[in-house]
Protein 1
Amino acid sequence: MKLNPTLAKLATCAAACGLAASAAWPAQTLTYTFVNDTIGTPGRQVVERSDDGLYTVTYIYKNNGRGPEFTERYRLAPDGSFSEYHIVGTSTMGAKLDEHFERRGARAEWHSTTERGAATVAGSAMYVPLGGSYAPNSVFIAALAKSADATMPLLPNGTLRIRKIDEIEVTNGSQTRKVQLIAQTGIGLQPWFEWITTGPEPRLFASADLAGEIFIETGWEGSRAKLEARQRIAEQAALSERAARLRHPLPGMTVIRNARVFDSDTATLRPAADVYLLRGRITQVLPAGSPARDADQEIDAAGRVLLPGLFDMHAHVWRWGGLLDLAAGVTSVRDMGNNNATLQSMLDDTAAGSLLMPQITPCGFIEGRSPFSSSYGITISTLDEARRAVDWYAQRGYPQLKVYNSFPKEILRETVAYAHSRGMRVSGHVPAFMRAADVVDQGYDEIQHINQVLLNFLVTPETDTRTIERFRLPADKIADLDFDSKPVQDFIALLASHQTVIDPTLATFDFMQQRDGELAAAYAAVADHMPPDVRRSFFVGSMNIPDDATDARYKRSYAKMVEFVGRMYRAGIPLVAGTDAMPGFTLQAELALYVKAGLTPAQALQVATRNAARYTGTSRDRGSVAPGKLADLVLVDGDPTRDIEDVRKVALVVTQGHWLSPREMHTEMGITPFVDAVPAVRTPAKAAVAQAGAGPGSGPAMRARMHEAAQAD
């Protein structure tokens, strides 16, 4: 877990967590290591404490050709909070990190490249850095252990709670240590699970993401399997409880009355209709007002627009992210790269109903071995290894392969042909030292990301796009690219003639134009609905944009990326809508950008429904509202076929035989809901009486149930 920004109050129970009062850490130097299943040890953290109480943290993490590198220095007040904090270095994408905090008496002040703030504070208060290492987590833990009343206000805002979940013993040679699993809530939109030491001076021991990587105190790496196994049980128990609480079953037959159905084939709204559902599928779509016989549930759409469930065609799913997707009406996702064992487990749990997650279409991730390799999927060096990787995915029903940056270009054509022979589509990034036109020629069915498409005109045979050059070059050069020139027009014609699908992820690439302190355009429409710490994070830039001239240039380049998507669409090149970022909200922003590129709102919705089903091979079951298809349905306030922003007003979602309330799901995450009311799911009197009569008993209890049923009609 990377530190999430902005908290206000840290409220917990020190006694319940087994946290005892302590002084500073006893060790002068403490080292932590990242351990990753695929790429080994991508980073480390070293914490040193000098005799005068100054802590110095050296942090480096490199994965996928990028990563942060910085130094933190801080001092602690007697209550364990920061009296001083300073970080300098670079972020994941190369942005400058320079953040300061200082407290003198009751006056606290902080400033960074993103923000400036101050507060007058009485008593204890803990500053939460915008970014940084895992070291502040240990500071929080130790400070809570020293707090007399188990609370500590934090700056600038928010509320953190810590709850003990589990306790086990781990060993390192002859050493034995007792550690506790805690769950933190109030940072971001999900609980964070961490392992801490016990005894008089508690601190962070390990943080496992359960997706192939752990951050752990050096020397104790052998404890990883035990820690992850216990944490997985705890997390799944919490997820199962959430699923049981937020999923509402639709037994028997359900009719959704008076809905304006979006026809994804023609990108038009049909007249009002009644849609019948049984056992998770649509049985009939009839004109509104048609008589329903013995419906078990009725949902009054009251003229709302009914969309097929939306697809996010570029996700990297994790267990806690499904709620964000479902609340946005995203009932299907295509996973474009993951830890394979983790993804298989999520597929199993989703099918079993113990995980709130859209239905997942898995895409097999295949990468070449290099110092820049990504940590997802299967890493290969030879054609034989590539074929074995394709076999592994094909045998598990993966319909598509995704090729990544370090893949050896010498074996690309044969690997693509082999995947095709196994019935798989092939997509991906453009491997280093190649151009987009080359991968189209070698058989790609699809290309991910607008930068990978437009790098076609920017790279030379020596350009290494495994590094952040794949972001810097488009930001710097596309502003001057002539889209009407013959090379560009020839390339557009090539894509159109091959019907190469493009997955632009435009909203994600908004980071190319965002300067520190600016609100990210992709999340401007939802920022005020977010918890304060999440909203604070939307102002943090990713790229190194040192001056106004660079800023203006990068913004022009991004605007032309948006324009190019519109040009491709008008040329007949198929689009699919993906995100590669925050679930749910980013897809809504993506569709708004397609409208900005020149698509109508209805055409943008068509891309996220019909096109998505077509290119995941699921058109038989999804992508439209029609008899025989899965009842993956989204009721929306307003009319998103006229104003694409209305797609944010999701009132109710039906999927996997249940109905879900976005209002309820957003409230669960601390997000202010986007709709005022949820359509009522009613049980008609006749059906309710029949249900009551089917059970045992009679007399007053039976009459009471019949009376309640009559009142419900």
Note: Residues 1-26, 689-713 have pLDDT under 50 and may be disordered.
Protein 2
Amino acid sequence: MSTAAAATIHRLGDRALIVDVPDLESALALHSVLESERTEGIDDLVPAARTVAVLFDPPRKSADAARTWLERAMERSASARGSGSGDEQDAGPPGHPANGADAIAIDVVYDGPDLDGVAALVGVSTGELVSRHTAATWRVAFNGFAPGFGYLVTDDDWFDVPRRSSPRTEVPAGSVGLAGAFSGAYPRRGPGGWQLIGRTDAPLWRPRDSRPALLTPGATVRFRAVDALATEPRTDSAESQPAQASSSDGPGSAAITVLKSGPLLLVEDLGRPGGASIGAGRSGVLDRAALTLGNRLVGNDEGAAGLEVLLQAALRFEQATWFAVTGARGALSLNGHPIEPDVAVRASAGDVLRLGYAERGVRYVVALRGGVAVARELGSASTDIGAGIGRPPLSDGDPIVLGGAASREIPAVDALTVWPPPQDEVDVHVVAGPRQDWFSPASIDRFYDTGWELTPESNRVGARLRSSAGEALERSDDHALPAELPSEPMVPGAIQVPPSGQPTVLLADAPVTGGYPVIAVVADADLDLFAQLRPGQRVRFRHARGIPA
């Protein structure tokens, strides 16, 4: 069956398409064709086990144009595979090896805690398992789970290794693991359910390098058994950076000191589109409209980095500068004198800005003239909590340096209409998800009829919802539990439904792939609403008009 005949295109929200293909080889072949013919307005191309996602920018590429471009690439991919040509399938991205002789070599000490258990599971000795792992030629099929995490596959004789029945809450950076037919290595510390057979010190993820991910789709990999590593596994992620990072915008003296950081104080801009194919999500400020407004008020470029403040904070100005507070609503004061939100205010050296506990909404945004100066990673100053990219969260006593993002004078009046954060039930418009057919008709109706409450477990990775009446979304008979969905690309706004039947809306810091079916995707224009929802606040999902399935 040809790729074109078997493939099905779905909407993945209003800024992405996702294609179902028969198998991994079809996905890799299609991704290779798409990558070689990428056009203006295509932000990213993300392959996965049996899918490929095309992320596009509507102002530069309409959904219809993106679909037409995709369909033509599918025809070319199917024609090449049907003719027996393997060029598109086997060729890797530029700069990567295309055969085993030139493969990326990864040294591994095979002493993982699951090594003996895995050997017993697949019925071979530990020595044979290691021998076959090192003898195989591996290829990076796709990235996901974490930035720089490559899902490796091989055409050589290999095993199907079940994941751990209980995932670990902490897997050390550099751990080499197995799951299903895949092998991989963890670029950073975090939770995981793969079977760990060894460890490596290979530089899997270096976000400030021109090539941040060592393993990208199409690269060929060989593992080498060694008795010891030259260095301890580490990454240049947020957890290993110094408290004060230098700035690509130019160094400067501290303009502000954090007196009280509150629950979470982050440096955020509008994010880093274009990194999903190597496992890096968009990230960025959750309330994009608030940051854009604040930057306009203080004369910055709209995408300049500012501060995202969860609930409350206090800052001392070490030099005179302009600032604006947008987003959440609460008591604001400068040296004890009340100030208004959504206006530009000039602070003098020694002034103290206090953002009182948010009474409406939950996240303030503080825009500072010149923007916050920190080292950029993948072109962005944003901190991605889920992926560990960017500057660590600010703490009490930390300095803040300003950059050169100011491009115009402070405006007398800003024409942008300001809407305060909602207090009551919120309507959120969504596009039908690519896996809506995984749910029963009654559950689809329930999804739209239920007032879903935000739970306290929500964060920048995802907004977790629950029904106050205890209702759950149930699978259709064709996809009943424990049926699993192979990992596939995700986007901010994707509404996943885990086995509990309670939906989760993925937000800016969510992983770029996931294995729970997506029933719907929040329209991009409504996604900022989740930045300001408070626990217990309710949302109702509505069909977005004018967006076909």
Note: Residues 168 and 192 are 5 Å apart (CA to CA).
Protein 3
Amino acid sequence: MTGEPDGSLAAAIAEELTACRQRGIERLEVSSHNQNPVPTPVLQRLATEYVTIRQLRAVTRIPQLKYLFRDAIEALAAENEQDAQLIGDLFFGDSQNRVTKSAGELLDLARKRSGYRTDPQFRRARHDAFANFARFILGFVADAREGTTDGRADPGPTGTVSVLPKLAVNSSNSVPLPEVQRQSATTGYVDQGQHFVDLLAEASSATIVGVTNESLASLLRIALDRKRNASQRPDAGWDSLRIVFLSDKLLDLVNDERREYPDPAEVLKQRRRAAVRGRRTVSVFLRGLPAERWATYESSYFPPLFGTLFELPTGQRVVQLLVRRPQRSAADHLYLQLEDTQGHYFSAAFDEIVHSSTDDNKVIPVGFPAADRFRATSTRYRQHVLKDGSKATGWLPLVLVMTWRISSGRAEPLLQLRTRVNAARELDRLSHLSGHILLDDWRDGPADDPPPQVPDFGLADQGPRSAALRRIQMETGEEGPGELRPLGTCKYLHPDKEHLFFFVYSCEFPESLQLPRQADIHPVTVHEHVSIRENQALRMALLLCEFPPTRGKVRADAFEIAVLNLILHGHTEVAQRLTNAATAQQAAEITRVASEIRELEERSRQTWPGLEPGAALLGLPGLQYREFFTLVLPFYSRVGIPGATEHLRMIDGDETKRSAVARLSELYQDESTMESIQLEL
């Protein structure tokens, strides 16, 4: 850049800074029908030179500019704190890594923080700050350049001294080889993972290679909470999170800490349970993050290392290698921590592990029901379906497994408490085991074989049965602990996303089966079932009173569903008053009935072991709530669960309740009705 006057260069930089600010730094490359990428030739030359001098890993324009801007703003603050604050607000706001606010939002934020009373004052201050910053950047990059050419060492991203590696010559073949670099490393015990959480909360990206990853989800959750508290942004997260699991076939070869089990078969079963728990809990956690920022993988080969690569916002890369100690608990494992070498050799090793692994993003069939079968017409990734408000069309196939056992001579149903540890949707509800049917459920060969073709399938076919057995094994750790019996199919209609088609099975667990505590599976009596559903019906009726639809037929259908459910739980008088108030569209009367329903709901609330303190049980999942009297209770009656037959007889002997069951079944299966009602009823 010699030969160009500094004044004209500074003016050009100031213009480019203004253009970057107006578009937003994350959107400089946007190309659409009315937008072209923002040209920044001078800034680009400076940014490329700067990251090269500093040996920062940034090969594209936006990361390079972000490194230059952030570091220059930090240096400017020592001379002109006011300009540095204003420029930082205009480009980055409160972001620690990726800038999520639009250029307009950042402008408003900077305007509020600046303290200027009028827009002309703010515009003048912004213009002057950019002019000053443009001149400062020129000197800032020049200083960085001189720091690498005058014999002084260049300060690394964290203020530590780093020296460009010299090259040695291999005399045998004259190929230049990097000289062995001196490294200082720290070691420690894994303990409860506190140091791991500290680094994870600070990192902008991470790659994690583990064995079972059974405790990873809880550590991720703590780190994310800490990251969000530090940035005071509820949507803060990682720019990239890559997690590698070992394939099931490798678990047999692991020598780990389960010495409390003398039987090798029991050791393997416990390890497999841990691996299933790790995959499931990590998957549930990740589904709460933006789908484009995370990925999970399965390695079919033993990785050359286990540990984590942390990429910090400063550009520094920290490697934490796990030193597993056989026959010791996880807390007694050691870690070895060091900065990545200047050639990024460890980064390359982690990248190679990821690239040689199989993407674990599961694929599910999408289509429509055809009688008692499902006809697949396309596929989707699991993480992109069932998004509230997505208005996505089509049907998704799932399995529902009604689990039960004989205990002390009496039949009892077994239901799982859905929490944020084991489920992503319908939390704080008691449910039989359910889950998606995956394309993998048809695979018989290796994971990298071509995906199978599954155009049409039913209850007796491989896919649904494999999905049901996989779901059982996920919770029990056992392969086929009971006989799987087909029961039928059911539809569940959503107003705002894909509909669901359930293949329903039953499975009787042997009395000797010891369910893992982490499965959170409990025996539930029929009386408890009915009481839980009663509270749920009251809560839904109350919600309808507070947010009633305004259109005629939708309003009438919604109130009819709520009233019929109240009738089935013995609240006939309240149901009649609600019908009268809804028919007359008397808001004051609906409010009075709502007050009565609220008292009943509060008195019937249920608690359950495993819920967070103060949390109430929210009931049953959607299908099991809607089909309670047509699917759940009849099945309980057939297998002899006490109270089920008596409750069905009571309903059958009451004409009003018998009609309510039939009418509810008709309404719940009416696609136009259920798609119109935006509340869960």
Note: Residues 6-153 form one domain.
Protein 4
Amino acid sequence: MRKSRRFVLLAVVAALPFATITPAAATRTDLPTPPPWLKVENGVSQPQFDLANAIEETLFVQTTVDSDLDGKRDRVRLKLSRPGETRTRGLKVPVIFEHSPYRYNIGGGANHNVDFSVLPQEGVQPNGKSAAAALGTTIAKPKPDLPGGLDNYWVPRGYAVVLGESIGTGFSDGCPTVGDDKETQGTKAIIDWLNGRAQAWNEAGEPVAADWTTGDVGMTGTSYNGTLPNQVATTGVEGLRTIVPVSAIASWYDYYRANGLVRAPHSNVSGVGTNDFQGEDLDVLGYFVEGPDRVAKCAHVTDALLQYADRTTGDYNAYWRARDYLRQAKNIKASVFVVHGLEDYNVMPHAFASWWSQLEKYNVPRKIWLHKGGHGGPGGVTDYQRTLNRWMDHWLFGVDNGIMTEPTADVQRPDGTYEKYADWPVPGAKATTLRLAAQNATEPGTLSTKAPSGPKPRQSFTDRGRELDTDVSLLPNPDVANPNRLAYLSAPLPKAAHLSGTPSVSLRASVDNRYAANLTAVLVDYGPDGQTTVTRGWTDVQNRKAVDKSTPIQQGAEYTFTWPLEPDDYVFAAGHRVGLVIVSTDMNFTLRPLPGTELTVFPAKSSVTLPVVGGKLGV
């Protein structure tokens, strides 16, 4: 969640198959009426107010929570900017609201050690010292004007902009509880104030009412700032008409864990290169956003974040459940415009895909924009900014600009162009199962839609993931046997294949000399010019039955391990081969035991399932 440098991963892909486009879900009928003063051209609000005349205020809003347990309800600070005409002409305007834990005075704390003799599920304590965290030099420092550029863009168009500071961060009261209901309620309080349901005071201690606003609010933000809109939307708070979460979390468990495995978010696009976030967890993030001055005061919060996040088993529990917004999606009343990078391995694609699925389940008015970059928004894309402008105009001003009758999904291709689809995954994507097979115990195997025939050997490999970077050392040369991974490849594809959705792996395997092990699967596109990592996924062998319960394994006993990979939308070009690489420890993502864990796979009873548009691969 801490901001990181963004890169764009380019790959050569074939032309996409045509998809039929149908209208988006029906909109709700309680939209505002556009005010007569609003300047609109071609369905988009235009700049009409001079930013130099904007009114800026710093206020403190009363919340309903006491996160630092000092006996007083926390107040959260905000800065706002609104058109001067809200005073001189009495105009009432809607609000673009970004809340953040990153405003001021951040830093401190160290990442957890991830190097172990054996995995902690086996009861062995970590060895070595904690790795130093790469703490945020990328967060914007205070400026004389409002931080960032939201006010520069939206205020001239007739919106107010509110920048809030999360409980326990910046100049707000309290302690940062990282994702729970207290943080949610602390954010919601600002929307309540904008709608006359909460109190606020200026820096002189004078009460201030939000009598200049319509009370209609659109929340937005990126990363943690984008997660807070998800949180608040699940409260169903009156006045929140829409949210635009960018690279946002839907479940904190999925951010720091994967199928029972303690797994780190990555600071780089696509997981390639050194990961500065290895060992980060809820408590580390809490230390980071509270800043060094609150460490003693907020120890009761950060200590609990460490204790109950459970870095030993990695199991889902009540603490994670309290930070899981997927189960609360039924309460959402706002519309949602989801924006995410398909190469985001910080807040990984599972976050947007799981959230999107819940929005569909509960018939939430929605739109999705998927770009080919990493963590953050689609920078420099004019059509995206125009689309965002139209979205806010529709939901906050009631402009009838047709945004909700257009295709629901925009998906970017590596050449920078976008394809429009009726939904995501792309309609017509069907589960296509490729079966693993091998001719002997050592040579790389095959992937085919046909059931394996001939020999059915088992294949073994030894984990050296602490010493070997998966992408650098274990993905290349898939046609050559490697004692530290297993590789399975399809025949060259007779035509382009469009993957859209969530792949999964089912592996019949055993752990031969340990009682715990990581399992990692990487889906790879092997072409004439080298390989491209498409997606990857991880699981804990002890969580094969349930994510909330570890079940011991027996050494040498075969089990069926089934787990999802990260969702993607990707086109394999004609002539390329689909590859599946199986490793144990993934250096830049998982906990790292000493090398030597031995695993055996039974390919004849293993498979990978891909959501393919049209359902056919021809291999």
Note: The chain is about 15% helix and 25% strand.
